[in-house]
Specification:
mainly alpha; 75% helix; elongated
Length: 202
């Protein structure tokens, strides 16, 4: 795959291809969108496409990495601007709820891609798992600061609530789904924070 050297700015053609693919893959799915469509909408030549992305798979991986960076930026911002572990986790949940209610929401890009690439050995599937592991690890780290003993279970619970909300958000009223999701996260955090307080008081 043609990669940009660290510290250098990606070419305009590469950025245009990636922006186009990100928009269309998320809105319409990956398998249903051909390279010719992306080339046409990005307004580049076929030679330019293959110079940047030797195959469609390379473009798909770049798309998932781009979405990962966007989601990581949102999570990092929530962590940086919140004063406590509970507030940070609530801020992450709030960013998820805002995404569910945003125009054009079509669920989780990674869960959508996983449905199209179920083979666990496929590079696309492995990219999905890497993203989800990062998210789980981040939640576990924050949950450890809320209540260490139950951090693993609580982080997995958060992920399950998030996955359910992302799936339901494009099937039902997104505002109601978001409200239900946030109530679930608030309850999860309250239970674990109370456990920590009880243990600390002993």
């Amino acid at each position: 795959m043609a990669r940009t050297e660290p510290g250098t700015r990606p070419s305009e053609a590469r950025l245009r291809l990636l922006r186009t693919a990100t928009r269309i893959f998320y809105a319409e799915g990956i398998h249903s969108v051909g390279v010719d469509r992306i080339i046409s909408e990005a307004k580049v030549t076929r030679a330019t496409f293959y110079r940047q992305f030797p195959s469609k798979e390379d473009l798909i991986l770049a798309y998932l990495r781009e979405v990962h960076q966007m989601e990581r930026g949102t999570v990092d911002a929530a962590i940086a601007t919140s004063p406590s572990p509970v507030d940070r986790l609530l801020a992450i949940a709030d960013s998820i709820a805002q995404g569910i209610q945003s125009p054009g929401f079509r669920g989780c890009a990674f869960l959508n891609a996983a449905a199209e690439y179920p083979d666990t050995d496929h590079p696309v599937h492995q990219e999905i798992i890497a993203h989800r592991q990062w998210f789980l690890d981040t939640l576990t780290m924050l949950m450890t600061q809320v209540h260490q003993e139950t951090a693993d279970r609580a982080a997995r619970h958060f992920v399950l609530l998030r996955d359910g909300a992302m799936a339901a958000g494009c099937l039902f009223d997104p505002a109601l789904v978001s409200e239900t999701f946030l109530h679930g996260i608030e309850g999860l955090l309250r239970i674990n924070a109370e456990r920590q307080s009880t243990e600390s008081a002993r």
